[in-house]
Amino acid sequence: MADLLQPHFILLLAFLLDLAMGDPRWFPHPVRIIGYGITNLEKGIRMAARSARQERIGGVILTTVIVMSTFVLTAFIQGLLLTLPDAVALAVLVILSCTTMALKDLTHSVQQVISAVKAEDIASARQSLGMIVGRDTQGLSEESVLRAALESLSENLSDGVIAPVFYYALGGLPLAMAYKAVNTLDSMVGYKNDKYRYLGWASARLDDIANYIPSRISGLLIVCSAFVISLINGGEAGATARRALSIMLRDSGNHTSPNSGFPEAAMAGAIGIRMGGPSTYGGMTVKKPYIGDERISGKEGYITASVTAMGIVRLSAFLAVGSAVAVLAMRHIP
What we know:
- The protein is an all-alpha fold.
- The chain contains twelve helices and four strands, in the order H-H-H-H-H-H-H-H-H-H-H-E-E-E-E-H.
- The protein has helices at 7-21, 30-48, 52-81, 86-98, 103-118, 122-130, 142-189, 201-210, 212-232, 237-251, 261-271, 298-331, and strands at 275-276, 279-281, 284-286, 290-291.
- A two-stranded antiparallel sheet has the order 1-4. Strands 2-3 form a two-stranded antiparallel sheet.
- Strand 2 and strand 3 form a beta hairpin.
- Helix 1 (7-21) packs antiparallel against helix 12 (298-331).
- It starts with 6 loop residues before the first helix and ends with a helix.
């Protein structure tokens, strides 16, 4: 039974568990606990900070405390679990590892948007989209709704799957959970608005650093997966992969994030749509550069592209997990 406690086996089981169950709403997800810690520590820092400089220092303290405490606490829990019966340790470690990944929830959320568009229920499609993006969704056309969903799908492939798996392969569960802390910090305080301009800058910068390699791996995985999916569908696999790679190299910089442009541009090239462009947030229109070239049009064309994108994302996740499992297994070869 002890052999089953090897990191590669735990990661594989965790991925399969995520595919089967996702993140049940009733489960006390570690991200919620991390979020609780962020909220309370932020309150304390804001009470003490009296200037922009102090807020910046507070932001460094916030980021350091949350990330380091998450890593140390997870390492402690992991060590404690390994003293328990193997079956108990295996079950809890698999569940904890599963919480670092979000493929099931990601694809389910986007599938709800696609299904609503297929059913010609644009109101439900906009409502479902509003659950996964920050932009205003009212008034968006069916094509625009699907385009926004695919942008979220591509970007969150890196944040929700590839990056956690990457850090699990590097440092096991503690490092993967520390990455989730970084990601949670960025989603809660890493904004450039007046409220978080100073307090959130450290979290935002650390998130950029943490996602630098995973985002580029995600783009390359999308290129490889696009080749395979096109080959299976009887398409021009070589041309599809070359187009995905070309658009990724050409347009990855057309994004406000130094990282998100890589998976988005690769996906845009792979399925032949144009992402980015003007978007509305809180009634204010924000102009963004376009990513990709529009090679399809109309509702049916976008639905087909969306289904293809879902396949590409799933295959990319399988390739990432398979590679990480292989690397971890090789480390433990006697």
